[in-house]
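User: Design a sequence. Structure:
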Protein backbone atom coordinates (compact mmCIF):
# COMPACT_ATOMS: atom_id res chain seq x y z
CA UNK A 1 0.00 0.00 0.00
CA UNK A 2 1.21 3.49 -0.82
CA UNK A 3 2.10 5.37 2.32
CA UNK A 4 1.26 8.69 0.64
CA UNK A 5 -2.34 7.72 -0.14
CA UNK A 6 -4.97 9.78 1.67
CA UNK A 7 -8.64 9.02 2.23
CA UNK A 8 -11.39 11.61 2.61
CA UNK A 9 -13.10 10.81 5.92
CA UNK A 10 -16.24 12.52 7.17
CA UNK A 11 -16.87 13.96 10.60
CA UNK A 12 -20.24 13.99 12.36
CA UNK A 13 -20.73 17.69 11.51
CA UNK A 14 -20.30 17.05 7.78
CA UNK A 15 -16.74 18.37 7.59
CA UNK A 16 -14.10 16.16 5.98
CA UNK A 17 -10.44 15.46 6.70
CA UNK A 18 -7.74 13.68 4.78
CA UNK A 19 -6.69 10.53 6.65
CA UNK A 20 -3.90 8.07 5.99
CA UNK A 21 -5.17 4.46 5.62
CA UNK A 22 -2.53 3.39 8.17
CA UNK A 23 -4.37 5.50 10.76
CA UNK A 24 -7.72 3.79 10.16
CA UNK A 25 -9.33 0.69 11.67
CA UNK A 26 -11.56 -1.57 9.57
CA UNK A 27 -14.97 -2.31 11.04
CA UNK A 28 -18.01 -4.21 9.74
CA UNK A 29 -21.28 -2.96 11.20
CA UNK A 30 -24.83 -4.28 11.03
CA UNK A 31 -28.08 -2.35 11.39
CA UNK A 32 -31.64 -3.59 11.82
CA UNK A 33 -34.81 -1.94 10.58
CA UNK A 34 -37.76 -2.85 12.81
CA UNK A 35 -41.23 -1.76 11.73
CA UNK A 36 -44.38 -2.29 13.78
CA UNK A 37 -47.82 -0.68 13.44
CA UNK A 38 -46.63 1.71 10.69
CA UNK A 39 -43.75 3.02 12.84
CA UNK A 40 -40.00 2.38 12.72
CA UNK A 41 -37.73 1.97 15.73
CA UNK A 42 -34.96 4.58 15.75
CA UNK A 43 -32.34 5.66 18.29
CA UNK A 44 -32.11 9.41 19.00
CA UNK A 45 -28.48 10.48 18.67
CA UNK A 46 -27.20 14.03 19.12
CA UNK A 47 -29.98 16.11 17.53
CA UNK A 48 -30.97 13.43 15.01
CA UNK A 49 -31.62 9.71 14.72
CA UNK A 50 -30.00 6.47 13.61
CA UNK A 51 -31.11 2.95 12.76
CA UNK A 52 -30.09 0.68 15.68
CA UNK A 53 -26.99 -1.43 15.21
CA UNK A 54 -23.23 -1.43 15.45
CA UNK A 55 -19.98 -3.31 15.02
CA UNK A 56 -19.48 -7.04 14.63
CA UNK A 57 -17.04 -8.40 17.21
CA UNK A 58 -14.33 -10.91 16.25
CA UNK A 59 -15.73 -14.44 16.29
CA UNK A 60 -19.33 -13.22 16.17
CA UNK A 61 -21.67 -14.02 13.27
CA UNK A 62 -23.51 -11.24 11.48
CA UNK A 63 -26.80 -12.47 12.93
CA UNK A 64 -25.40 -12.66 16.49
CA UNK A 65 -24.03 -9.13 16.21
CA UNK A 66 -27.31 -7.76 14.90
CA UNK A 67 -29.31 -9.33 17.75
CA UNK A 68 -26.76 -8.13 20.34
CA UNK A 69 -26.42 -4.60 19.01
CA UNK A 70 -30.17 -4.05 18.72
CA UNK A 71 -30.70 -5.37 22.25
CA UNK A 72 -27.91 -3.14 23.60
CA UNK A 73 -29.24 -0.03 21.86
CA UNK A 74 -32.99 -0.61 22.29
CA UNK A 75 -33.64 -3.28 24.95
CA UNK A 76 -35.65 -5.24 22.38
CA UNK A 77 -35.21 -8.78 21.08
CA UNK A 78 -35.41 -9.25 17.32
CA UNK A 79 -35.17 -11.95 14.70
CA UNK A 80 -33.13 -10.67 11.73
CA UNK A 81 -34.20 -11.64 8.23
CA UNK A 82 -30.65 -12.40 7.11
CA UNK A 83 -31.73 -13.47 3.61
CA UNK A 84 -33.24 -10.02 2.90
CA UNK A 85 -30.35 -7.55 3.00
CA UNK A 86 -31.65 -4.01 2.42
CA UNK A 87 -28.46 -2.11 1.70
CA UNK A 88 -24.66 -2.38 1.76
CA UNK A 89 -22.25 0.54 1.67
CA UNK A 90 -18.94 1.73 3.03
CA UNK A 91 -17.98 4.82 4.98
CA UNK A 92 -14.76 6.54 6.01
CA UNK A 93 -15.65 8.13 9.33
CA UNK A 94 -13.96 9.91 12.21
CA UNK A 95 -15.85 8.97 15.36
CA UNK A 96 -16.71 12.02 17.47
CA UNK A 97 -16.37 10.36 20.88
CA UNK A 98 -12.86 8.93 20.48
CA UNK A 99 -11.49 10.77 17.42
CA UNK A 100 -10.47 7.46 15.81
CA UNK A 101 -10.78 6.99 12.05
CA UNK A 102 -12.65 3.99 10.65
CA UNK A 103 -13.26 2.35 7.31
CA UNK A 104 -16.72 0.90 7.82
CA UNK A 105 -18.63 -1.67 5.83
CA UNK A 106 -22.31 -1.14 6.73
CA UNK A 107 -24.97 -3.85 6.28
CA UNK A 108 -28.70 -3.14 6.75
CA UNK A 109 -31.29 -5.89 7.39
CA UNK A 110 -35.01 -6.00 8.14
CA UNK A 111 -35.80 -7.47 11.54
CA UNK A 112 -38.91 -8.86 13.19
CA UNK A 113 -39.72 -7.77 16.74
CA UNK A 114 -39.81 -10.74 19.14
CA UNK A 115 -40.12 -9.03 22.53
CA UNK A 116 -38.47 -6.94 25.21
CA UNK A 117 -39.03 -3.44 26.49
CA UNK A 118 -37.42 -0.24 25.20
CA UNK A 119 -34.46 0.62 27.42
CA UNK A 120 -31.13 2.43 27.36
CA UNK A 121 -29.76 0.34 30.24
CA UNK A 122 -27.25 -1.47 28.00
CA UNK A 123 -25.65 1.62 26.43
CA UNK A 124 -21.84 1.74 26.50
CA UNK A 125 -20.39 4.68 28.43
CA UNK A 126 -19.65 6.66 25.26
CA UNK A 127 -23.17 6.02 23.90
CA UNK A 128 -24.63 7.61 27.03
CA UNK A 129 -22.99 10.88 25.92
CA UNK A 130 -24.96 11.21 22.69
CA UNK A 131 -27.82 8.65 22.53
CA UNK A 132 -31.21 8.34 24.18
CA UNK A 133 -33.70 5.50 24.51
CA UNK A 134 -35.12 4.23 21.22
CA UNK A 135 -38.42 5.62 19.95
CA UNK A 136 -41.12 4.41 17.61
CA UNK A 137 -41.33 7.01 14.84
CA UNK A 138 -44.38 7.10 12.53
CA UNK A 139 -43.44 6.15 8.96
CA UNK A 140 -44.80 9.42 7.58
CA UNK A 141 -42.33 11.40 9.75
CA UNK A 142 -39.15 9.56 8.64
CA UNK A 143 -38.41 11.71 5.59
CA UNK A 144 -38.33 14.83 7.80
CA UNK A 145 -35.76 13.45 10.28
CA UNK A 146 -32.06 14.26 10.52
CA UNK A 147 -29.75 11.24 10.27
CA UNK A 148 -25.99 11.19 10.85
CA UNK A 149 -25.19 8.04 8.88
CA UNK A 150 -23.83 7.97 5.29
CA UNK A 151 -26.93 6.36 3.75
CA UNK A 152 -30.38 7.40 2.62
CA UNK A 153 -32.06 6.12 5.79
CA UNK A 154 -35.56 7.03 4.61
CA UNK A 155 -35.14 4.86 1.48
CA UNK A 156 -33.77 1.92 3.48
CA UNK A 157 -36.67 2.18 5.95
CA UNK A 158 -39.16 2.40 3.05
CA UNK A 159 -37.62 -0.75 1.51
CA UNK A 160 -38.03 -2.60 4.81
CA UNK A 161 -41.63 -1.39 5.04
CA UNK A 162 -42.37 -2.74 1.55
CA UNK A 163 -40.85 -6.11 2.52
CA UNK A 164 -42.91 -6.23 5.71
CA UNK A 165 -46.11 -5.66 3.78
CA UNK A 166 -45.30 -7.98 0.89
CA UNK A 167 -44.53 -11.68 0.57
CA UNK A 168 -41.06 -12.80 1.55
CA UNK A 169 -39.44 -15.67 -0.27
CA UNK A 170 -37.68 -17.62 2.50
CA UNK A 171 -35.63 -19.52 -0.10
CA UNK A 172 -34.06 -16.39 -1.58
CA UNK A 173 -30.30 -16.22 -1.06
CA UNK A 174 -29.78 -12.43 -1.30
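Assistant: Done.
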Amino acid sequence: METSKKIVAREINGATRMISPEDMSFRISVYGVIIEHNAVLLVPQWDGFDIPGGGIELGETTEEALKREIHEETGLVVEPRMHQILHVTQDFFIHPTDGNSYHYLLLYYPCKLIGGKISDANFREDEKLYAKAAQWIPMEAVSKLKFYNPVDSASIIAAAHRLKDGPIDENRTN
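The chain has two helices and ten strands. Confidence is low (pLDDT under 50) at residues 167-174.
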